[in-house]
Amino acid sequence: MAKTAAGALSLLWGWLWSERFWMPQNVSWADLEGPGDGYGYPQARHILSVFPLAAGVFSVRLLFEWFIAKPCALHVGIQDSGPYQPPPNAILEKVFISITKYPDKKRLEGLSKQLDWDVRKIQCWFRHRRNQDKPPTLTKFCESMWRFTFYLCIFCYGIRFLWSSPWFWDTRQCWHSYPYQPLTSGLYYYYIMELAFYWSLMFSQFTDIKRKDFLIMFVHHLATIGLITFSYINNMVRVGTLVMCLHDASDFLLEAAKLANYAKYQRLCDTLFVIFSAVFMVTRLGIYPFWILNTTLFESWEMIGPYPSWWLFNGLLLVLQVLHVIWSYLIARIAFKALIRGKVTYPGRIRPRLCTLHSFLTSFLFSILGGSWTVSSLACV
């Protein structure tokens, strides 16, 4: 029995790490065991160093939120207090937990007679009780400020690193001598820090306040981790750095818009969202297909030819492009409707209302594979 299990496990392991799947023709894992230059070649065992680093990133986040983000939130007027607590009531609490959080007119009238309360008082109780389950604005501000800081720093590092990298100026360099491309220290740190950050987000989901999109974001983080890990093991790290930097270009702008929204700087929030939308459209609909997909599909085909993992990698990138088109359409549609409503609601000036984003985009979050932004978090407080 033990031998059978060991044989099955060995067969599964061999299938997962099949050279015919991962590597171009006539290339084996042994060929990449050499030292190369700098940090050698990417190895699957390097991924193990991510876990202690992710724990360190999570610890830094806690310190950052407590000593930097929270004082900033208090400085801009965000109160260090939760929502109003409704008076305890066993009957209403039982209805809220077991039956419905949004009682209809008939049920409200029945509760009114049972408790001898006014219907409006019962409606207020349910509204305050629902708000009680929402994360405080202070918590959301601190989380967004941490993500804004990381995205901005990693984007600046990525631009600085890629500026001196030959494949940033000539994408054919992504495939020159592939897969025998040495792993430099700068490239290694860039990849490992991105991966550690997403692992830290995975950890923090279980300690943060639970939100409605918990499962959606769990799948999102898992998919992102899988894509980054896949490209590292396959040594497609050069084009991987281009993809990561391209997506980071708009991520920090969205977090900045959320910070302005929580602080109730509406005009700044509107401006940042417009800038985010423009950058998103340019990077995801312009640069991504004509720069990234051009090199992964055509230049790589010409220089190294297709093989199984090449098809999978490009398939995922094409799916991501389809999602970019969907997101861009939704953003443009929402922005247009918000502008129309803004003209009616605020005569003489345009003031888009970001709370409309929540109802349109939440259903699409499950499909996020390469981006890290969550538009549902922009819902009005």
Description:
Mean pLDDT is 80; it is low at 343-381. The termini are far apart. This protein is mainly alpha-helical. The longest helix is centred in the last third of the chain and has 38 residues, at 266-303. Helix 3 (50-75) crosses helix 7, helix 7 (137-163) runs antiparallel to helix 11 (237-262) and helix 12 (266-303) packs antiparallel against helix 13 (308-345). The radius of gyration is 25 Å and the shape is elongated. It is built from 14 helices and no strands. The protein has helices spanning 2-16, 19-22, 50-75, 90-98, 105-115, 119-132, 137-163, 166-169, 185-204, 214-233, 237-262, 266-303, 308-345, 357-361. Keywords: DNA-binding, Endoplasmic reticulum, Homeobox, Lipid biosynthesis, Lipid metabolism, Membrane, Nucleus, Transferase, Transmembrane, Transmembrane helix. This is sphingosine N-acyltransferase.
N/C terminus separation? 59 Å
Largest sheet: none
Radius of gyration: 25 Å
Q: How would you describe the shape?
A: elongated
Query: How many DSSP-defined strands?
Result: 0
Structural class assignment: mainly alpha
Report the total helices: 14
As a percent range, the share of helical residues equals 55-70%
Strand and helix order? HHHHHHHHHHHHHH
Residue ranges: pLDDT <50 for 5 or more in a row? 343-381
**Fraction of residues in β-strands:** under 5%
Mean pLDDT: 80
